[in-house]
Amino acid sequence: MDIRNGPSAAIYAHIVGWGMAVPDGVLSNADLEAIVETSDEWIRTRTGIRERRIAGERDSTASLGLRAAQRALDVADLHPTEIDLIIVATSTPENIFPSTASLIQHWLGATKAGAFDLSAACSGFVYGVEMAAQAIRAGGIQTAVIIGAETMTRVLDWQDRGTCILFGDGAGAVVLRASPTPGGVLSSVLRSDGSGSDLLGIPTVGSEDLRHSDFHVQNGHRLGKMFMNGGEVFKFATRVIGESITQALDKAGLTLTDVSLIVPHQANLRIIQAAARALKVDSDLFVSNLDRYGNTSAASIPIALCEAIEQGRVKDDQHIVFVGFGGGLTWAAMVIKWTGARPPEPGASTLIKQQRRQASYLWARWQTQLRRLNRRISDFLARFLPIQRQKPDQD
Ligand code: ACO
Asked: Is residue 62 one of the residues assigned to a domain?
């Protein structure tokens, strides 16, 4: 399908599907009292968090991301082969490589999609939506799935009460699709300040700093475990939320009075309240669900978006704002005009499409086994049978 009416016709990137997935396991503040020296009262009053979800043995960043993406495809009523690009924003990928996005691409049966992971910590989802929107507006692709997925509880230092009480696991996803109808992603502001790399992070295999920097050694930072200077991150977050929202609105030619809803990264209720005070708006303008999920990093904005949609807080023609901030340091704000996307009406054709999607997921699983078996057989034959291989320079 070519949605351009002519060579210069504008293309817009609209959110047409959304979905979320959280693990069943719940870790309450009372549970944490048994792990570190803390209290339900301290956590609630300092952060607003009451409980968070914790990945079980069978959950992983990819499995949560897959479920969120499948739900988003159901709402968009699209087949996986219609996806051109899959981006997974995550700080807890399955591997350094292959990307979590590649795993999800295969499990969906999205055989015509490119896939990559994006590392921008808690701002990653907004970065991902902007990358996909640019590709759509440039005409390079038509449909993208952007997923924020995390298993933060697997990178926490459970002896550090300053961090382990904050984070939870989960995933959220949106489908972004090209359309000639004006609206969708209107503007965005993406920013980074790497001088704050000592404020929060998760050192991994290539970390020079961990081996040589006195700062990391003195502070006892560990490979694969999160560290954070909560106070400094708090100050940074309250400053950049207001700034970046104002900048993104300016770019879209709008002001705060045009905004119906702000979906912020869910880090701390006090950060959201401070940002509302700085912007001189009611804190009800901000979506907040961190009492039930804690900070799910790159997954927090799409999860909060899904719940806001379910609660009827997102309506046609409204302007909504996403704002994220976190490790890097990074931050990002985005203005979207919501243009009437809704799940398909139940009916025979919807059911058939849903079954076709299920068949695609099942076939993808089988294909993994078949391709691996095929590789083993080919390898066996090449080793033990005298097959004449043609050299590249032979005619
Ligand atoms: N339970 C009980 N006491 C605690 C706990 C705890 N879990 N954690 C810290 N304390 C104590 C401290 O030791 C300190 O005690 P002291 O005064 O005797 O030294 C006291 O409580 C106050 O500590 P602060 O660190 O000043 O507490 P603060 O009010 O700043 O809250 C918090 C800490 C919740 C971490 C806050 O700073 C915060 O939310 N920061 C922002 C985190 C964030 O937004 N991260 C987002 C990015 S995440 C990403 O990108 C992946």
From this structure: yes
**Residue with CA nearest ligand 1 atom 29:** 46
Catalytic residue among 14, 122, 221, 306: 122
- E-state strands within the chain: 12-21, 26-28, 51-53, 85-89, 114-118, 143-151, 169-179, 184-192, 200-201, 227-228, 259-264, 319-326, 330-337
Q: What is the pTM of this model?
A: 0.92
What is each CA distance from 252 to 221, 259, 342, in whole angstroms? 42, 11, 24
Report how far ligand 1's centroid is from the alpha carbon of 46 (Å). Answer: 7
Is the CB of residue 272 below 6 angstroms from any atom belonging to ligand 1? no
Which residues, in sequence order, are bridge partners of residue 281? none
List average pLDDT for each run of 10 residues in the chain, which is 395 residues long. 56 97 98 96 97 96 98 96 98 96 96 97 98 97 98 95 96 97 97 95 77 68 89 95 97 97 98 96 96 98 97 95 97 94 82 92 89 88 70 52
Which residue, by CA, sits nearest to atom 49 of ligand 1? 326
Q: Which residues does residue 189 pair with via DSSP β-bridges, in sequence order?
A: 333
Nearest to 148 by CA among 100, 106, 105: 100
CA distance 297 to 238: 16
Structural domains of the chain, count: 1
The CATH number assigned to the domain holding 276 equals 3.40.47.10
393 is a domain residue: no
In residues, how long is the chain? 395
User: Active-site residue 29, yes or no?
Assistant: no
| Residue 295: domain span | 12-337
Q: Which residue's CA lies nearest to atom 42 of ligand 1?
A: 230
